[in-house]
Amino acid sequence: MRALVARTLGAPLAIETVPVPAPGAGEILIEVIACGICHSDLHAVDGDWGTPPLMPLIPGHEVAGRVVGVGAGVADVALGELVGVPWMFWSCGTCEWCLAGMETICPSTESTGFSKAGGYAEYMVAPAAFVARLPESVDPVAIAPVLCAGVTTYRGLKRAGLRPGQWLAVLGVGGLGHLAVQYAVAMGLRVVALDVDHEKLALATSLGAEEVVNSADTDPVVAVRDLLGGTHGSIVTAAAPIAFEQAVGVLRPGGTAVYIGLPGHARDTISTSISRLVESEITVRGSNVGTRLDLQEAVDFAVRGQVAATVRVVGLADVNDVFADMCAGRIVGRVVLAHDHGVST
Ligand code: NAD
Ligand code: ZN
Ligand code: ZN
Description:
Blueprint: E1 2-5, E2 14-17, E3 27-36, H1 39-46, E4 63-70, E5 82-85, E6 88-90, H2 96-99, E7 110-111, E8 123-127, E9 132-134, H3 140-143, H4 149-160, E10 167-171, H5 175-186, E11 190-195, H6 198-206, E12 211-214, H7 220-228, E13 231-236, H8 241-249, E14 251-259, H9 274-279, E15 283-286, H10 292-303, E16 311-314, H11 319-327, E17 334-338
Parallel strand pairs: 10-11, 10-13, 11-12, 13-14, 14-15, 16-17
Antiparallel strand pairs: 1-2, 3-4, 3-8, 3-17, 4-5, 5-9, 6-7
Helix pairs in contact: 4-5, 4-10
One zinc ion binds at residues 38, 40, 61, 87, 148.
């Protein structure tokens, strides 16, 4: 099969012919139809995070595909079914966090396209118990971004604990952020979107954001406080540390900031006012991908047409250019890699 492989951190990916993997016990073989290109893939192959990925690495963790093989003991997923593979490839199921329904922070977790081979390949294997079940009605290209960008922002919004009618600031309207705007609107929240690029803000407006602020032109903390007196919640999907500071600054007293973006170990610190956190009883929460329940719920919003990613489709040979565009902040919405099985791309 053809796959995009990283052999050295920071180097371009190369198209290689590698063996089709065989599903082990409890695993399924998936013919990958589409795989979204998440900023985390770029962080992974650049070695931005402290832990290095499995090398050589086949990235990709927004995978939509069809089951074409089943390993021993797989009973709940059938041949021919459409499934989705998220970042959380597997979690142990027995640690205190898994038992408490917090499998997203299982210390033994495996990650798709990071510690396990992902979807920048024509085929991949995944544990049957961890894939999303997708109805036949979905378009694999359209659903792919929901499998990371969607579920991650959906869980982040749940963790913000807001009620319908309250204001949410979305800091960063990229692949994740443009879905965050839609989930928030679907949940009855009012959205102010912040980015450093006017095209992304225009997309946010078209998706239901009532206010937008260009953080490159103005101090967003002052702007949001002037506009709204602050927001009840904020969610950071930008990978710039300053946005994490601003996410605290834009809040009303009693507000909650949810941190999702991962700038990397070289830019991993922020500074904030202790007295503001204390005197205004501000909550700051991290949010890491989503549980299997979050995933199924996030997919369900998309199946019912309440969220839809803005996508551009590319082939294997284009992914290095997509990474360059992502690095330069030139991508509006999400780019999705589509495998043309049997046809060269
Ligand atoms: P993206 O490149 O598509 O979007 C990032 C957006 O942030 C862009 O629109 C960019 O213009 C905007 N931005 C940059 N600087 C900004 C600033 N100062 N203020 C406001 N906006 C700014 O990336 P993505 O795929 O959406 O991923 C975003 C981040 O989320 C990455 O760091 C990724 O690794 C991380 N991520 C985390 C999780 C998790 O579970 N916590 C899951 C997926 C992705
Ligand atoms: Zn991702
Ligand atoms: Zn566990």
